[in-house]
């Protein structure tokens, strides 16, 4: 009988230990809502030729099974974006495509676009042409490997053009170039909607990212390849989590399918995002995953 009186207490103790252990190891459920891919390329090596590894049906299937409901699309050359934006397959898949004008006709343009007047004319021509599904919504992605080139004559003209025509800019640049590009606009950057591809791929300190977000109210950070973002177990590192909680309306996720390998691992990329999004409060996760991108382009809620 004495044993009987002891057991319930022992059980309570064991149960408490077990619950504590579970709480310590439990992780938040992954984010399961819609995703907005704010940095997607559909370059010719993905779709060109009869044996193309990633024809339209393939990339749309990847978006659909990951619940990627809208994408910022650009490509070298622009034909890939045109195809993605206008295909009946895209409509059937329920994917909204926001087409951007890429500044590169070929690899040589990567290192010369910011001073090449023929690129400016090409952008004007592409904007006038639009796509059969509607106008282009932005310019980019473009790269500046030397931030001083943000002061190139064509770079400055394109930033002013983007602000005047209410186009979104997708820029793979460092933090110094963000200031220079913003300075080239009529509003000194207050009215330019700029998506900062990778939010500092060279590891711009979090404090400097925060300073730029505070300085430019329409600056958005896209988070592919961002060093220092994810820590143990694929969770957000503490400084990034704090920054997202402070600026919940300013970040977005992206695939950056710049080479075919990124298409091959598209599922894993999106699963990785869902894992750390799940660590954020639900309303913040949904903003970063979907609403910030949707809001930037006036899409209706999902
Ligand atoms: Zn890219």
How many beta-strand segments?
Answer: 8
Helix and strand succession? Answer: HEHHEHHEHEHEHEHEHEHHH
Structural class label: alpha/beta
Spatially, the strands of the biggest sheet line up as: 1-2-3-4-5-6-7-8
What does this protein look like?
45% of the residues lie in helices and 13% in strands. The protein has helices at 2-25, 44-47, 56-65, 79-86, 88-93, 117-129, 153-164, 175-183, 206-215, 238-246, 260-264, 266-277, 282-296, and strands at residues 35-41, 68-74, 96-101, 138-143, 168-172, 194-196, 219-222, 251-252. The protein starts with a helix and ends in a 6-residue tail after the last helix. The model has no long low-confidence stretch (mean pLDDT 92). It has an eight-stranded parallel β-sheet. It contains 13 helices and eight strands. It has 302 residues and is α/β, with parallel strands linked by helices. The longest helix has 24 residues, at 2-25. It binds zinc ion (ZN). Zinc ion binds next to strand 1. Zinc ion (ZN) binds at residues 39, 41, 141, 197, 256, 258.
């Amino acid at each position: 009988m004495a044993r009987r009186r002891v057991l319930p207490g022992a059980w309570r103790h064991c149960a408490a230990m077990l619950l504590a252990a579970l709480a310590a190891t439990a992780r938040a459920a992954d984010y399961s809502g819609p995703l907005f891919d704010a940095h997607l390329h559909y370059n010719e090596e993905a779709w060109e030729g009869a044996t193309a590894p990633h024809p339209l049906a393939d990339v749309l299937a990847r978006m659909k099974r990951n619940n990627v409901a809208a994408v910022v699309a650009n490509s070298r050359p622009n034909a890939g974006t045109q195809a993605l934006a206008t295909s009946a397959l895209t409509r059937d898949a329920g994917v909204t495509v926001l087409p951007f004008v890429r500044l590169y006709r070929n690899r040589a343009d990567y290192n010369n676009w910011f001073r090449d007047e023929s690129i400016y004319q090409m952008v004007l021509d592409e904007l006038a042409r639009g796509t059969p599904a509607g106008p282009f919504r932005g310019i980019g992605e473009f790269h500046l490997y030397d931030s001083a080139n943000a002061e190139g004559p064509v770079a400055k003209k394109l930033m002013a053009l983007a602000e005047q025509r209410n186009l979104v800019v997708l820029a793979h640049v460092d933090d110094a170039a963000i200031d220079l590009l913003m300075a080239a606009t009529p509003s000194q950057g207050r009215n330019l909607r700029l998506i900062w591809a990778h939010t500092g791929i060279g590891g711009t300190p979090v404090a400097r990212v925060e300073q730029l977000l505070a300085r430019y109210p329409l600056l958005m950070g896209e988070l592919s390849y961002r060093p220092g973002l994810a820590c143990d177990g694929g969770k957000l590192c503490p400084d990034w989590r704090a920054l997202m909680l402070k600026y919940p309306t300013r970040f977005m996720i992206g695939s950056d399918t710049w080479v075919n390998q990124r298409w091959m691992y598209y599922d894993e990329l999106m699963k990785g995002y869902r894992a750390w999004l799940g660590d954020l409060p639900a309303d913040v996760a949904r903003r970063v995953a979907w609403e910030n991108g949707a809001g930037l382009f006036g899409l209706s809620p999902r």
